[in-house]
Amino acid sequence: MAATTRVALIHAYSSRNSGDGLLVDLSVGLLKQAFGDDTHVSIVAADPASFPQYDDVHAAPVLADGGLTRLAGAASLFLPMRLNARASELLRLLDSAHVIAGVGGGYLRARNCAEALKLEAGHLLQMRAARLVGKPTVYLPQSIGPSMPAQPLLAHMSGLLGQFRSVFVRDDRSVQFLSGNANTQRAPDLAVLDFERRSAQIMARAECAQPEVKRVAFVLRRAPSWSDTQRTRYETATRKLISLVGAQCEVVYAVQSTGRGNDDLAYYRSIGIDGPLVSLKDLLANDPPDVVVSVRLHGALESILHGVPAYHLSYERKGFGAYADLGVEDWVQNAADFDADHVAQTLLELRAIPEFWARAKGGLERIRAGRERVVAGLRAARNA
């Protein structure tokens, strides 16, 4: 009997943001698909207490700390890694694994100098540790590359990634950024891969759904690091869209993230939405709407995985890549500059729901090929 495969899954964040929690769950599921149900996965997380469903979760150096402890941890990075107590614990964990995997997501980026410092002290520390132990390392589908003009950081990160076994990216800009690395491969987002795996069940549920849109759930968040003009445009268009949809349908609101700087509940209260608010996960499980409008990508994708069509107002390139892979490009717009009338018209068209699923069904073969590439990459790393 083959020995149980041990995998160290690095870069996990917090399940208090259900999108990040979903990515960890999907990463673990994909690892078990590749290596078997008995695969042992050790998770390195910024918020380890938020993953009680897993029995082997470790605190990420620096990222899991707070206040002065985080500052001290960041300062200690100037020491050789094996002399840094928290980093040396990480090295021992990684060295015990057969394979190291980077969780899917969009954490390898920075929009300003402060974010670049956090990237270096947090996630790039984990990358350097993976390189130092020399175990086969695979990064699951990512959006990679800071948007800030910092060529040294870009070159440094590209050089680190180029030394791993495989790096899967989920959008064309990331492909371009890593075009000089032979180990880069394009693959859909983890939730898109899971949509294909569960497509028979999802499509069966979709066929039973009513074709008319009578109830719409909004998953909103505070605008990210945009200009004042973009923020004003986003909030004005969002209010208009809610008004247009609410004139013909019941409108409900759902929360996807409540912690670590991503408090959607506080945002809802700040814009005067004081009614009952439930988590998106609970809403989808217990009282699903006909359609979801989500500003968070994995709020949209989680809805689709539950058989609910979702319009995505995207604030990053990852949303456009995911919706292109799904084959539903006409259900995504730029959140900073979207046309509320067009979104409302798309949602409320007579056959909007069945046409959404017909388009998604047409992309399944392409997605299946992407999932097979990722699984093959993981297995090749295990056999290296």
Explained architecture:
With 384 residues, the protein is α/β, with parallel strands linked by helices. The protein has two domains: 6-186, 3-Layer(aba) Sandwich (Rossmann fold), CATH 3.40.50; 198-364, 3-Layer(aba) Sandwich (Rossmann fold), CATH 3.40.50. The chain is 48% helix and 18% strand. It is built from 17 helices and 16 strands. The strands form three sheets. Strands 1, 2, 3, 4, 5, 6, 7 and 8 form an eight-stranded parallel sheet that branches. Helix 14 links the parallel strand 15 (310-314) and strand 16 (332-334). Helix 3 (85-95) crosses helix 5 and helix 10 packs parallel to helix 15. The chain is globular, with a radius of gyration of 21 Å.
List keywords for this structure.
Rossmann fold, 2 domains, eight-stranded parallel beta sheet, globular, six-stranded parallel beta sheet, alpha/beta, 384 residues
